[in-house]
Amino acid sequence: MKYLCLVYLDQENWSACSDTVCAAFGQELTDSRQLLAAEPLHPAHTATTVRVRGGQVHLYDGPFAETKELLAGFYLVDAKDLNEAIRIASGIPPAKYGSIEVRPVRQLDIGHAAA
Amino acid sequence: MPRNERQAEVRFPLVAQLSDSPEIQDLFRRDGRRVFASLVRLLGSFDLAEEALQNAFVAATERWPQSGIPRNPVAWLISAGRFRTIDHLRRQRRMAPWSEVAEQVGAMADPGPAPDEREAVEDDRLRLIFTCCHPSLSEEACIALTLREVCGLTTEAIAHACLIAPTTLAQRIVRAKAKIRDAGIPFEVPEGDALPARLHHVLRVVYLVFNEGYSASQGDDLMRQDLAAEAIRLGRLLRELLPEPEVLGLLALMLLQDSRRAARATAAGDLIPLDDQDRGQWDRGAIAEGAALVREALGSQRFGTYSLQAAIAAVHAEAAGPEATDWGEIVGLYDALARIEPSPVVLLNRAVALAMRDGPEAGLALVGPLIETGGLDRYHLAHAVKADLLRRTGHNGAARASYAAALELTRQEPERRLLRRRMAELDGTEEKF
Description:
Distance between the termini of chain A: 41 Å
Helix content of chain A: 10-25%
Oligomer: heterodimer
Distance between the termini of chain B: 33 Å
Strand content of chain A: 5-15%
């Protein structure tokens, strides 16, 4: 069966685990052929929230804040920039009823990239 | 220090240090942000572009005394800024190969010849405005970033104008730039379907800047008062780059509101309602310009909320006095506005106009429900309007109660003074100013 494991951290603990440690764990899961997808995210303030109402796309700065709306699914997408990601998000069918938080993925910082 | 000189110092302290040459200083004042916008596109980063802008003017200060001012100084500056900065970063990269910024530069394609078509440069300024006003950034961030990067104001000047601590503002700008970088906000003008909503957001930011300045009182920092002029300058720039009807509408609205600046408050800072203002003090030049823009915008058939608000302001501005105001036309304009934006506040303003056309009872019939079920029960102006209409129908007791309700709901001193004055008038007593 597939499972989605969501990581939640408060401000104080945001950087408690180094990227090297996380990368190592990811590699273990990859080796055991159990990892389907994993990405670290930029902090919440880099998010954009998308809602589509009455055919209009409404954009809000920051993460979504409706406490009655709960996590229902996810799409991990490739887009050339935020505007394209927003276009994709606004086409997700539940965008018409709820909110889609669009958060940029970051790279793990695990030392020197090859020159 | 004369006002223009003080303004220049606040906006462009750097170039005054760099160069004695009045031509170079003029160029910086006039075209510095134009050069900056192109550098943002070419270098892919706000911070690199700032550095490149400085490098460009350093280069100009070094070379132009001998070689003379080039035929196309803007293109020369863009080119010089870009090459000097890339060169500097490449040297940095050789010394510290893993610097993040140097990585960015290494990843950039080899720069070809600098584009010097005027059109490309104009588009860059529009790209800059749309980027600084991206809806993914908070409104405060948009305002700060636009004033800093499009208008070229210093962070100190912006902080004083917006009544926040300079460190808070500096942080806000740093975080906004970081978000542009991390969230992948592209440096582009939105296309097709996306443009109207994005443009509306840009106009909203400009109007927010205008209102910060317009709400400034005589005793406030001059930079704060100047924000209204800065917003109008932005409006003119937008009109030059993207003459859409709503852009014209916003510029008209700002000009028409600003035309009343001299008449809207007493020396003590008390607000004078529109109907009581000395129209002889209104700026007729601004009114004429605003009215012409309104006609142009409405003629397009693609107008929106700003054009309609400007049209309403124009009807007031062109009336010789309150009795001469064409309230029927104003009601019609509010009808159109309410179709696009049926917000309770629009409906309230429509009720005021309707009361002027059809009498206070007609207005009360609309205002009552707006307060009871329309969401305006916590809005002090709704109660003030109701109080005024009750007074006009002779229900002084009920009017007093409504003025009291309005007073409960606002902390703004000038508003409170006006409300207390109105209450005192009901009792037949005169308040001393």
